[in-house]
Write a structure and sequence with these properties.
This protein is an alpha/beta fold. It has two domains: 127 residues, NAD(P)-binding Rossmann-like Domain (Rossmann fold); 191 residues, NAD(P)-binding Rossmann-like Domain (Rossmann fold, 3-Layer(aba) Sandwich). It contains twelve helices and 13 strands. The strands form two sheets. The protein has a seven-stranded parallel beta sheet, sandwiched between helices. Strands 2-1-3-4-5-13 form a six-stranded mixed beta sheet. Helix 1 packs parallel to helix 12 and helix 4 crosses helix 6. The mean pLDDT is 96. Belongs to the D-isomer specific 2-hydroxyacid dehydrogenase family.
């Protein structure tokens, strides 16, 4: 049974083909799954998708009509899938509930360090043999107060690194993580975390309650020179409000690996096109802002774990099993 995998990156393809070799033939597509590309899945009982797929009602109906019975998403997040419609159509859906939390936590700190020490500006200058230090002054991380919003697996890893730098840790979550408490983290209300932190990093999932968690009022509570890092989900930050905050001279730096309107932009080459997203274009003009293209998870270790779990999810579907990764179990009959 051939499996069709959508949205496969060039570095990801050989890892997928190696993992599935000898078990199931797999056909990898660069295009992302949406209503326009869903007809390509006709005749494939099992497909695999990426987090930037758009599995709305229209796309799901096309998949079901073409014979698809199982969707194996290669990510932890699944807010791009209309689960209610998928269930009505009898589609089995699985995700990857766990992969290396170090990949994202380390990248979040990469963003923080790059923004704080103005690495992008410095690298662009030195390539032009401009070796001035003007405008490149950063701050010691040691001694900072670091606010961690979301202290699950990734937030915990981020906190351990922060602890190694010698920071004061503040945390916010629906429940305390004992491992973070052992690091000396003080769990405080959101308002306190925003007001006291020199650096704030987001590690919560995108849910209705967390959409635009960082809005104009949250931004206003932050220190004027605070650093904001988001390597979780773009929708956590109200980007329009962020732009206005930056325009007023607020915040010392922002590092974003995700963007709320990234679908159709991230993972594509748009360098020869006119940018029509005015908010993103304005955001990119600020010298203290660094935007990367949803690559925090993109290490060989993490991607290999994602692929291995995806293969296990497919095997579970074929055997009629469920696991912690199952979002919608296989329909009876």
């Amino acid at each position: 049974m051939e499996i069709l995998a959508y949205g496969v990156q060039a570095d990801e393809k050989p890892l997928i083909e190696k993992a599935f070799a000898g078990r199931h033939p797999v056909h990898c597509l660069e295009v992302f799954l949406n209503a326009d590309t869903a007809p390509l899945a006709a005749g494939h009982e099992v497909i695999s998708t990426s987090v930037n797929a758009s599995l709305d009602a229209s796309a799901l109906r096309i998949l079901a009509a073409g014979g698809t019975r199982m969707i194996a998403q290669r990510s932890t997040g699944f807010n791009n899938i209309d689960l209610a419609v998928a269930a009505d159509l009898g589609l089995t859906v699985a995700r990857v509930s766990y992969y290396s939390p170090y990949s994202v936590a380390e990248f979040a700190w990469t963003l923080a360090m790059a923004v704080n020490r103005r690495i992008t500006r410095a690298a662009l200058r030195t390539r032009e043999f401009d070796f001035r230090l003007d405008g490149l002054m950063g701050r010691d991380i040691h001694g900072m107060t670091v606010g961690v919003i979301g202290t699950g697996k990734i937030g915990e890893c981020f906190s351990r690194i922060a602890h190694g730098f010698g920071t004061t840790l503040l945390g916010w979550d629906i429940a305390k993580n004992p491992a973070c408490v052992e690091l000396g983290m003080d769990y405080v209300p959101m308002e306190q975390l925003l007001a006291r932190s020199d650096l704030i990093s987001l590690h919560v999932p995108l849910l209705p309650d967390t959409h635009h968690l960082i809005d104009d009022s949250a931004l206003a509570r932050m220190k004027p020179d605070a650093l904001l890092i988001n390597s979780s989900r773009g929708g956590l930050v109200d980007t329009a409000a962020l732009v206005e905050s930056l325009r007023s001279g607020h915040l010392g730096g922002v590092g974003l690996d995700v963007y709320e309107e990234e679908t159709g932009l991230f993972f594509f080459d748009r360098s020869l096109e006119v940018v029509t997203d005015d908010t993103l274009a304005r955001l990119m003009t600020f010298p203290q802002v660094l935007v990367t293209s949803h690559q925090a998870y993109f290490t060989r270790t993490a991607v290999s774990q994602i692929i291995d779990t995806t293969l296990a999810n497919v095997e579970d579907f074929l055997a009629g099993r469920t696991s912690e990764n199952t979002l919608i179990p296989r329909a009876e009959g």
